[in-house]
Write a structure and sequence with these properties.
Elements lengths: L2 E7 L12 H7 L3 E4 L4 E7 L1
Antiparallel strand pairs: 1-3, 2-3
Length: about 45
């Protein structure tokens, strides 16, 4: 198991990310945060 922290500039935090398991995608699409000051998205993905 590992955790990925991915930053995205001004876009959907999960754009272009694909999972082999729909359940993982469903569970972890909600785990993301927006930094309003810098307009960044940070995706936290747990495998």
């Amino acid at each position: 198991m590992f955790v990925s922290f991915i930053t995205h500039k001004n876009q959907n935090p999960f754009a272009g990310l694909y999972f082999s398991s729909d359940k993982l995608l469903f569970n972890f699409t909600k785990i993301h945060y927006q930094n309003v000051n810098e307009y960044n998205y940070v995706s936290i993905i747990i495998y």
